[in-house]
Every structure is written in structure tokens, then in C-alpha cells.
Amino acid sequence: MEFKTRIQFNLTPSYPFHFDGTFHKPSHFPNNLKLEEWESGKYWQTLRCGNELYGLKLESKGTAIKPKLLVSIFSKKALSKDKLLNLKVEIIWRFEVDKDLKEFNEMVKRDKIFSPIFKKWLGMRNTAQYSLYELLIIVIVLQNATVRRSQQMLDALLAKYGIKLKFDNIKLWAIWLPKALDKVSEQELRDLKVGYRAKFIKKLSQDFSAGKVDEYRLRKLSREETKKELMKLYGIGPETARILLFEIFHQDDVFDHISPWQQKIYSMLFYNKKLVSADKIRKDVQRNYGKYSMLATHYIWEDIFWRRKNEHIEWLEKEIRL
DNA sequence: CATCAGGGCCCTG
DNA sequence: CAGGGCCCTGAT
């Protein structure tokens, strides 16, 4: 499928703004059938907004003092005014274009250990690249699996049910709509070697297809209410809910659940020690960064994965099991 | 060749 | 609320 119709507009992000830190998250696992593409100053992804699919391209324009985003939206046919307005609102929300980082930046400027890292990524946002359903699929293939296996599962699912979209001379994949799995049996999903996750994917897709989950309503709830609603979903426990709260609902303080593999990486990052108790890590991070505990951790976390692109970090390689 | 844990969650007792 | 089971893979 190719989208050739294009409409462009500019957005002015709140200052300061860090384009590359915002639109490339090196800690995310790379599967082969790509959902997004990035190079310095440019970013492409397929974009789900309601039941519609678009191609999205973002480019860094303007200057460091006056940052600007050039947004290009590719679609099958010309967009109505309403849809365009909706998309603008959605893009601003998803990528935190308007985020007020003043208080956060003031706080981390005084950080005794990590202020250089916060300075380096000044203006970075935590983005919601995906719709709730899309990220649910991704986090489910992450559960109880090594990175390589997660890649295999997502690739297999995309190859069978995904949509290959060409726009701006680039080919990317998009995750199917929930209703596309209406007539797909649990066994057919199992045949893609997703194991017991087939049941999760099937049930979740049914619930979304039946309109039982309203992402836009959840955005308006408090953190605790949203978490409660998410945990009701079949296959969604505390860890998955935490990821969703941060990466979809922009809750900056969800540093409550620390899994064993994260504990090992945090121990090295924060203390340069092999293993610090999860309880101590949680208390220290919450005390140091308060309502920005997850956002602050996100900066430090992504920074080490950026460094990994150019240097070999022995202890990290050991923790990233392929 | 077997055995086992892994970017968790569900279900049972 | 603790513990077993779950799918499949690659590591040992």
C-alpha cells in the first residue's frame, strides 16, 4: 500500500527541545519489519489514529533557540479539516510537543552525579509512538522472553497480519487493527510461535474490537485509575501496566515496579555496583526525583543505550540477552 | 542429548 | 499471597 497524498504544517515545540533524543530510543529492541525509521533530524513512522492509518514524517527545523518541527502526513486521500485538526492534537499529545519541562530541568540541573547527562539530553521527551493497542502487542511479546525471541514473535505477527506501507519513498510496517483478528483463532496465532501469549493477543484484540477499551477516556483518568483499568486487561500485570503508564499515558512518576533484569542495570547505572536491592533503588530514585522519577530514569537509561552505539560496554552487553 | 531460565501473568489452593 | 504452569529458544 502506498500513500501519496501529503499535507505539511509546522509545530513549535516548547523550549528546550531535543529532536534526536525524542524521536530515537536506542533502548527499544529492533525487530526486522520496522515500524519506524530515524536519522539525525528526521523521523518516520506509521501512525494509527482511531481506525485510520497514516504515514508520519517529522523533521527538525528552526534553531536551537527557536526549535521547529516540520510535520508531513501521508494519507490515502486528502484529509478533512476535522481530521487534520485531530491529527495535530494527537501528534502534540503523543510526542509531548508542548511539554513544560521547566521544573524538571531546574531539578536535575542540581543533580550531583547525573547533571551532565541531563544537560546532554536537555529537552528530550518521553514519546508515545504507538496507540495503546499497538504497544500492548509489543509489550506482550516482550513478556518472559529474551530479546531475540521477542523480535521473532513481533516479526512473525507483522508478516502475517501487519500492513506494509510506503510513503515518502520509505517502506514501514504498521500493526493491524484489532478487528483484523476477529476471525483468527488462538491456534493460528500459536502457529506463529508466540506460545501462551496467543491467548492474551486473542482476548485483547476481542476486547478492543468490541470497543471495550477507550484509550482516549483512559487518558483523562488519574494515574491510579488508569493503572486499575489497565490491570483488568487480560495478560496485563504490574510490569506491563507500568510500561503503558509511562510510554502511552505520559505518567512521569511510575517508578514502582522493578524487574530483576532492570534491577541489575539500575544497580550499575546508579551505584556502579553489581546488585543493589530493588527496594533501595526505588526509594532512592523516588526521593531524588519525586514526581519525575520515571522520566529522570528514562534520561539516564536511554543515555547508556546511546553510548552503546559507539562503545562496547561489557556489563551492559551481558544484561541484554539476545 | 537433557535441562533450564527468560524484558510476567494467570490461576489455584 | 505463594508457587506452579505456560510456549518456545538458545545457552549450558
Topology of helices and strands:
Blueprint: E1 5-11, H1 19-23, E2 36-39, E3 42-49, E4 52-62, E5 67-75, H2 81-94, H3 102-109, H4 115-120, H5 132-142, H6 147-161, E6 163-167, E7 170-174, H7 186-190, H8 197-209, H9 215-220, H10 223-232, H11 238-247, H12 260-271, H13 278-289, H14 293-310, H15 314-319
Antiparallel strand pairs: 1-5, 2-3, 3-4, 4-5, 6-7
Helix pairs in contact: 5-6, 5-8, 10-11, 13-14
The protein binds a DNA duplex (13 and 12 nucleotides) through helix 5, helix 6, helix 8, helix 11 and helix 12.
Question: How would you briefly describe this protein structure?
Answer:
By secondary structure, this protein is α+β, with helices and mostly antiparallel strands. Among the domains are: 6-99, 2-Layer Sandwich (TATA-Binding Protein); 132-164 and 175-247, Orthogonal Bundle (Endonuclease III, domain 1), CATH 1.10.340. It is built from 15 helices and 7 strands.
The CATH homology group name of the domain at 132-164 and 175-247 = Hypothetical protein, domain 2
CATH architecture type of the domain at 132-164 and 175-247 = Orthogonal Bundle
Tell me the fraction of residues in β-strands, as a range. 15-25%
Question: What shape does the CA trace take?
Answer: globular
Distance between the termini: 33 Å
Strand order of the largest sheet: 1-5-4-3-2
Class per helix and strand makeup:
alpha+beta
Proportion of helical residues: 40-55%
The sequence of SSEs as H and E is EHEEEEHHHHHEEHHHHHHHHH
Mean pLDDT score? 96
Number of H/I helices: 15
Rg on CA atoms, Å: 20 Å
The major pleated sheet works out as: 5 strands, antiparallel
Number of strands: 7
